[in-house]
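FW: tagging you since you asked about this chain on Friday. Here's the raw sequence from the shared folder, copied in full. Didn't touch anything.
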Amino acid sequence: MIKKMNLCLIIIGLFILAANARAQDEQWLQYHSAREVQLIGFSLNYKNLEVITDKPAGVEMPQFKSKDILFAKWPTPMIQSGYILLALDKTHKRGSHDNLYIDSNGDGNLSDETAIKAYRTTQNNMYFGPVKVVFQIEDGPVTYHFNIRYYSSGNNRRRIYATTGCWYEGDITVDGIKKHCVIFDYNVNGTFNDKSLEAGESDRIRIGELDSRATRFVGNYIKVDGKLYRPEIARDGAYIKITRADDVNFGNIRLPESITEFSAGGENGLFTINPENGTGSLPVGRYKISSWSVEHKDDKDTQWKMEGTQYYYSGKGYFDITETDEAELSIGEPVISTLEASFRDGMHYFRQAVKGRDDERIELTRNGTRPQAPKLNIKSEDGKYDRTYSFRYG
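HL: got it, structure written out here
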């Protein structure tokens, strides 16, 4: 009898230890919501929702105050239908759409919802949020917040934009060292673990010091203190597991020797490297160029930096990293300065821009700040008109 009891105690003890080990793998984060999410240092990704003027079939509606109702569907994989329905109503006949109804419980109807008033209005915009929705998933209800902006400039220009209004944040342990972690639903679909070759469809993550602003794409890997890890993020963002990635295959990349910093992203995550003699390495996979920079000093000891940033949806800048073949990229100098001129309504208009070889957006700084905008000299053929104008940023 004693032996059986001892055996039971051992089994129970092992079960508790195993359960604790599993619990330690899942490092839980705290949920936050806000109207101005960009204040925590994340750039916002606006999801443009299609404006629908026809009433969706089979949907129970509340008692609207006007007849000019606008509908939209916010896409999310967190519910079976694949979207959350929302409607915009007017409280005054001649006013703008200042009342928002949203299917907050995902039951497909609006009749049980209460109108949400716009918290801020401008001449063309109505702002709502953070708006709360609750997803019913296998593990129970999950709360999510997002913000809505309605833009109107006449009936022909109506837009409804959704932006994320929440994030997860907290302290985690990486190889025994305390770090601060923030996870952000960048592509505004209700989930926090999206990986993609396209930067606009990847969620965002930070692991570092509390005040760190070093943001990375959610991906297969992430570097922390120079070491490579595999992050596993809960679909709803509530926890993260992170393990060392010591068995990753790398391949080489060759860049012009003038490149001092290079970053590229994809499903592997976002990586930034400082090439040595024009070479560096990345985990095997497919990538898209995110940015590059060239820094040098002139003969007056002035520090110049030229940075090229690839547009998210440009359709350019893709490359593959393999173990066998070196990927060679033609980026950096020279860049192209263009001047566009147009004439309309009796006025001449000029636009100056600097682009990279793949139409990258180019930013030039001098000792860390923007130099003066370039000037434009206009001189008539007979020389009677000769004036110099300065361009302006923004």
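FW: The longest strand covers residues 125-137.
HL: agreed, and The chain has four domains: 30-165, 167-244, 250-328, 336-390.
FW: great, closing this out.
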